Amino acid sequence: MAVDPDPSDIVTLNIISSHKISSKTSHCISLLYNADAPIHVVGLHAKSSVAAKAITIAEIVKRHICEQGDKWYQYTQLSHFFEEPISSKRMRSRKRRREYPRAKQDDNWPPLESGEEKDGNDEESDPFEKLEDDDLKNTRATPVLTIYISRTRLLTFAKFYWYIPQPRSS
Predict the structure, then answer these.
(1) With left for phi above 0 and alpha for psi between -120 and 50, is residue 69 left, alpha or beta?
(2) Which residues, at least 6 apart from 134, have a Cβ–Cβ distance to it below 8 Å?
(3) Which of 65, 120, 122, 126 is 20 to 30 Å from the Cα of 145, by its Cα?
């Protein structure tokens, strides 16, 4: 039986380096065998640095499903998102601290540039000004792996994601 899941039926677990494999695996199994859920789909979402952990969890879950005598279906998605490298974030915060050191809040804060007078009209910068090239250089595409495991066949997932068939038992 093939079905199309509602996005609210899909539970996505974010995998990070501090998570324990055993706890995530048991959580996935409990979600896949939940009697109240209309469709049993679990997504494992991981950045490239912890993709091996997500793959390990998926393989253990699939092995458990096979031991129960059920079928499993796996769909894999590779994507990316843009983020600022950590070193750039640290450099900006250091630069900001150097320009505006912590001080008491008073009438002289923030410091005015030379020749500038304080008046009641504080103008903001133009929101339509061009971005500097430095802002564009400090982003990078971070790869993301999402593994969907289901106990039912999902037609829409088969069209858009890589389908990994269950090996036939000999």
Answers:
(1) left
(2) none
(3) 65
For 76, the 3-state DSSP assignment is strand
| C-alpha dist (Å) from residue 136 to 47, 91, 105, 127, 151 | 22, 15, 34, 17, 43
The string of pLDDT tens digits covering residues 13-64 is 999 989 899 999 999 999 888 878 767 889 999 998 999 999 999 999 999 9
Q: How far apart are CA 64 and CA 70, in angstroms?
A: 9
Flag whether the pTM goes above 0.85.
no
Q: Which amino acid is at 166?
A: Q
Interatomic CA distance for residues 105 and 111, integer angstroms:
11
**Beta strand pairing status for 73-83 and 2-3?**
unpaired
C-alpha–C-alpha distance, residues 42 and 150, integer Å: 6
Find out whether 54 and 147 touch, Cβ atoms under 8 Å. yes
